[in-house]
């Protein structure tokens, strides 16, 4: 898999003696979590994993050189059962995903480290990340943090419809890949599907609402796309990438400098 993580920030490139020499209390380890799943006809299965690595790599490059932050190798497989039925989707169950995070958290704690960030770029993992951040805090006394997606940037220029319902393989993800790995984007096979219409005030919505319905991609998007990739450009991707990396770097720096109000 391609990587944008600088070699000197890659935890797995260290020897155990080099790890042993790291400051245990202050070192911030970042565990990326993503997915291998269908992303329509035009994007690769590894889209969420590539975006994770790209954003994290760019963010880490912005950190002060003396801040001890290292990226762990990513958990490539996520809970992707919303995309089952599309060949190539490789999903793990919620219990498997959580067990992997628990075991890795235990290993991090056993190595003497105290600070762990779960950095997730696949929506199907989000609720599990929140559960595990707290469980790892409680069980191993780790100072755990959750970091999601693009760090909350506003995605200037995105339509209201795409902003609300561009969930998957739409303008944002396609723009990121056009900026970083255009050779992996098939621009001749875009398709458009929306799960709901932002101009219609529905009571039941797919996400981010008090009343939701559980959805599977195959119920509503035969191509696997939930959104509209057609307005995507490399220029937008580069702009959003830079904005996201800046926000993510600020969050990582805050996490590295964070201490609990009461002694942990
Ligand atoms: Zn995705």
Protein traits:
4 strands, 8 helices, alpha/beta, four-stranded parallel sheet
Please tell me the CATH architecture by its name: 3-Layer(aba) Sandwich
By DSSP (H or I, 4+ residues per run), the number of helices equals: 8
Order of helices and strands: HEHEHEHEHHHH
Radius of gyration: 19 Å
Helix-strand makeup class: alpha/beta
Number of domains: 1
The fraction of residues in strands falls at 5-15%
CATH topology: Rossmann fold
Q: Extract low-pLDDT stretches.
A: none
CATH class: Alpha Beta
**Could you say which small molecules are bound to this protein?**
zinc ion
Largest sheet: 4 strands, parallel
Beginning-to-end CA distance, first to last residue: 37 Å
Q: Give a count of the beta strands, DSSP E runs of length 2 or more.
A: 4
Secondary structure: helix percent = 25-40%
CATH homology superfamily: Creatininase
Protein described:
The chain has helices spanning 16-20, 47-61, 94-110, 126-140, 160-165, 171-180, 217-220, 234-256, and strands spanning 28-33, 69-71, 115-120, 143-148. It is an alpha/beta fold. It has a four-stranded parallel sheet with strand order 2-1-3-4, with helices on both faces. Helix 2 (47-61) links the parallel strand 1 and strand 2 (69-71). It is globular and about 55 Å long. 41% of the residues are buried. The model has no long low-confidence stretch (mean pLDDT 96). Bound molecules: zinc ion. The site of zinc ion has 5 residues, from helix 2. Residues 39, 47-48, 168, 173 line the site of zinc ion.
């Amino acid at each position: 898999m391609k990587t944008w993580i600088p070699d000197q920030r890659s935890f797995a490139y260290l020897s155990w003696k080099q790890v042993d020499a790291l400051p245990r209390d202050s070192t911030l380890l970042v565990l990326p979590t993503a997915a291998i799943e269908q992303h329509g006809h035009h994007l690769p299965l590894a889209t969420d994993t590539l975006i994770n690595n790209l954003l994290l790599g760019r963010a880490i490059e912005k950190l002060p050189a003396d801040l001890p932050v290292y990226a762990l190798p990513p958990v490539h497989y996520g809970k992707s059962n919303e995309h089952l039925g599309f060949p190539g989707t490789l999903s793990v169950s919620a219990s498997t995903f959580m067990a992997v995070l628990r075991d890795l958290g235990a290993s991090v704690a056993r190595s003497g480290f105290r600070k762990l960030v779960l950095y997730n770029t696949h929506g199907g993992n989000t609720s599990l990340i929140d559960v595990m951040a707290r469980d790892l805090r409680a069980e191993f006394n780790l100072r755990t943090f959750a970091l999601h997606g693009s760090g909350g940037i506003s995605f200037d220029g995105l339509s209201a419809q795409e902003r609300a319902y561009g969930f998957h393989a739409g303008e944002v993800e396609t723009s990121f890949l056009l900026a970083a790995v255009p050779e992996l984007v098939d621009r001749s096979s875009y398709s458009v599907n929306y799960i709901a219409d932002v101009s219609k005030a529905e009571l039941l919505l797919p996400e981010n609402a008090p009343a939701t319905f559980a959805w599977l991609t195959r119920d509503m998007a035969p191509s696997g796309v939930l959104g509209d990739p057609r307005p995507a450009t490399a220029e937008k991707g580069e702009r959003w990438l830079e904005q996201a990396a800046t926000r993510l770097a600020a969050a990582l720096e805050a996490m590295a400098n964070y201490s609990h109000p009461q002694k942990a």
